[in-house]
Amino acid sequence: MRQLVRYTLIGGSGVTLDLVVFLLLHNWAGMDEQIANAISTTLAITNNFVLNARFTFERRDRLFVRFLRFYAVGLTGIALTDLLFLALTDGLGINANLVKVGSMPLVLALQFVLNKKWSFA
């Protein structure tokens, strides 16, 4: 339970970074939502890996391999969000900002399980 709390708190910092960068790239710079999502999520993944390796899972061995696994798990979040963009933004006309925010709890839950069982096992 302690790990889940730490993962969620660290995830909060990643969510904030992800959302701020996404909003800036998509709304301010006019970047396509899928490209903005890939960039913002990559920054958040890197932030979260560093903090989770240190504080949540307390692992300092095989960091490069663990980062590659963590990033692969992060790619599942990018893919899931992109599928939601296609279905909800492109398909139904729902605002991309709402889709991005709405996808975050689902992505967080999926990634916690995958990271606990694979990236930091």
Summarize the structure.
By secondary structure, this protein is an all-alpha fold.
Description:
The protein has 121 residues and is mostly helical. It has one domain. 85% of the residues lie in helices and 0% in strands. It has four helices and no strands. It has helices at 2-28, 33-56, 63-90, 96-119. Helix 1 runs antiparallel to helix 2. It is elongated. The model has no long low-confidence stretch (mean pLDDT 90).
What topology emerges from the helices and strands here?
Blueprint: H1 2-28, H2 33-56, H3 63-90, H4 96-119
Helix pairs in contact: 1-2, 1-4, 2-3, 3-4
| Main beta sheet strand tally, sense and closure | none
Per DSSP, the total helix count is 4
- Indicate the structural class: mainly alpha
Binned, the helix content reads over 70%
Percent of sequence in beta strands: under 5%
| Total number of strands | 0
- Low-pLDDT residue intervals, each spanning 5 or more residues: none
What is the N-to-C succession of helices and strands?
HHHH
Count the domains.
Answer: 1
- Name the shape in a single word: elongated
Q: In angstroms, what separates the terminal alpha carbons?
A: 16 Å
The assembly state of the depicted protein chains is single chain
Radius of gyration: 14 Å
Q: Averaged pLDDT, please? A: 90
Which key phrases capture this entry?
121 residues; mainly alpha; 4 helices; 85% helix; transferase; transmembrane helix; GtrA_CellWall_Glycosyl; Dolichyl-phosphate beta-D-mannosyltransferase
